[in-house]
Amino acid sequence: MKINGFQPKLFSCLKDGYNKTSFVQDLLAGVIVGIVALPLAIAFGIASGATPEAGILTAIVAGFIIALFGGSKVQIGGPTGAFIVIVYGIIQDYGMNGLWVATFMAGAFLILMGILHLGTIIKYIPYPIIVGFTSGIALTIFATQIKDLLGLQIENVPAGFLDKWVVYFQNMNTISWWSLLVGVASILLIVFTPKISRRIPGSLVAIVVMTLVCLLLKSLGVQGIETIGDRFSISSQLPQAEVPRLTWDSIRHLASPALVIAMLGAIESLLSAAVADGVIGDRHDSNQELIAQGIANMVTPLIGGIPATGAIARTMTNINNGGRTPVAGIIHAVVLALIYLFLMPLVKFVPMACLAGILVVVSYNMSEWRSFKAILKNPKSDITVLLVTFFLTVIFDLTVAIEVGVLIACLLCMRRMAETTNVSVLSDEIDPNADSDVQGNLDHLTIPEGVKVYEINGPYFFGIGNKFEEMMGDMGGRAKVRIIRMRKVPFIDSTGVHNLGNMCRMCRQMGVKVVLSGVNENVMRVLVNAGVDEIVGKENICSHINLALERAAKIVAE
Q1: What is the C-alpha separation between 79 and 101, in angstroms, rounded?
Q2: What average pLDDT does range 495-499 have in this prediction?
Q3: What is the pLDDT of residue 469?
């Protein structure tokens, strides 16, 4: 099943000798990943400002769709910590319908990215930006969990990072020591469980153990430990499909958050798929993966879900337990669906402090503090991008952080490209041994009297235009012919074309001829489309420097 070059990995895996042994491996991996995904789905649903059901339903539906249509063999999809901050903000400002509209639009953006083959471009987002906003999200998630971790009696927690901490400190006298004990114990269980067995998920152990402990404590008369059931009414009923209410006003206001969700989803899913490739020795289809992520995010709002993407931790759990095809991802979704249908009422006994402990560990794992520390030793430009993205994420929001971070990175990239492009002037002779476009076996090439040779080495774009104009300097002078060597110009943009055209016109007004040398096919096509060949004269565009010097000598003689 291949449509316009797009083919889900599932179909190719089933055709390539899929057998009973493969299925047993995928079955075991899928069951384990489904169990691992349960506490995370609940925690992400609640932390995002939605409900436990929203988190689990998203893991079921998105996990199934991403496995069915995805471009990676082992990717496990579902809600992730990266979305908590942006989702919480959207719900606060626009309500659940606003979140569903934004998620639906984000899905459309992701599908469009895949159709336009932008999967490979997403990979070139600068690393300092990724680390900056990932670390910022981690710190923000940690801040959102302090209330439940300490059991603070706060009715409304402010959305702002700094405002949160002010309110926390003002209400420290309401701390519940039992909640703190449950939260700390949950963290310790998650940290130390892998030292006993790596197959048993620490988060699941924490939920089971601390739920039983809290039930025991409540039977002994201990109060003050809030559970999920105290805050939410838990239901295992299947949701009715409901299309988000789309209006022009909501689309206009939510376009920017939707684009952030799409960018986050694209970056995290492709990063997860790339990490998985390195472990299993495979190569994912980035554009197919974006289409699958897009379909998932267009469907989850219909069942009251939240945004989803590829989850690195669950994907690695899948790999480590033997999953090698998308069948494991489908089974993981089926396991979650069975838990939702038959065990959901038990979720109400889970302590909120335990979920807070799980998310504290998630935020630590997301923080990438080692990468953050390493980048601080890099050039100042990388440090600037990192810190600006980080502080904007923490103090303002993710939308602003990504927009400004990408803008700064683009500006720095332009500056670096401008610095790598240089213009040199030759006025005596050319060394054939150092030049690739010299024809014939010559000791040297002499530049005729009245001729100057300018060589552009690098892309000719708007960043280099002014530098070239300055070097041309006095257009009159003693030079009668100016040869511009473009053999090392890989591309030219519209500003470069405009700049070159203006310079040629100015030279013509001052009686100076311009000869172009070594223009490659792509650059030549752009110049012809812009009419620069007519300004210079087609006879003055030469394939290599020998012809350019002969033409220049002839012009001087005339």
Answers
A1: 17
A2: 85
A3: 64
- Give the whole-angstrom CA distance, residue 133 versus residue 139: 10
Residue in the structure block whose two tokens are 């007519």: 534
Closest CA to 127 of 329, 446, 320, 374: 374
Encoded amino acid at 319, one letter? I
Torsion of CA 136, 139, 145, 147, to 10 degrees: -110
Rg (CA), the chain: 31
Whether residue 270 contacts residue 286, with contact meaning beta carbons closer than 8 Å, is answered with yes
- Angular region, 117: left φ>0, alpha ψ -120 to 50, beta rest: left
Q: Which residues contact 460 (CB under 8 A, 6 or more apart)?
A: 421, 468, 486, 489, 491, 492, 493, 496, 500, 523
**How many of the other CB atoms lie within 10 Å of CB of 165?**
13
Query: Is residue 500 pLDDT above 90, yes or no?
Result: no
pLDDT score at 430: 65
CA 309 to CA 6: how far, in whole Å? 19
Q: Which amino acid does the sequence have at 249?
A: D
Angle at 359 between CA 172 and CA 85, to 5 degrees: 90
Biggest alpha carbon–alpha carbon distance for the chain: 109
The domain 422-557 is classified under which CATH number: 3.30.750.24, 1.10.10.10, 3.40.718.10, 3.30.980.10? 3.30.750.24
Highest mean pLDDT: which range of 135-139, 291-295, 309-313, 367-371: 291-295
Residue type, 512: V
Domain ranges of the chain: 9-175+228-352, 422-557
Rounded Cα distance between 514 and 230, Å, is 81
Q: Residue 507 burial (CB < 10 Å; 0-12/13-18/19+)?
A: buried
The predicted-structure confidence for 223-264, as pLDDT tens digits, reads as follows 889 999 998 888 878 777 777 887 888 889 899 999 989 988
- The answer to whether 139 and 401 are in contact (CB under 8 A) is no
Residue 344 has, within 13 A of its CA and on its CB side, a CA count of: 23
As a whole number of angstroms, the distance between CA 144 and CA 37 comes to: 21
474 backbone dihedrals φ, ψ, rounded to 5°: -70, 110
Q: Which tokens is 98 given?
A: 């606003």
Q: Distance of CA 63 to CAs 55, 248, 269, 375, Å? A: 11, 30, 12, 34
Beta bridge partners of 455: 424, 485
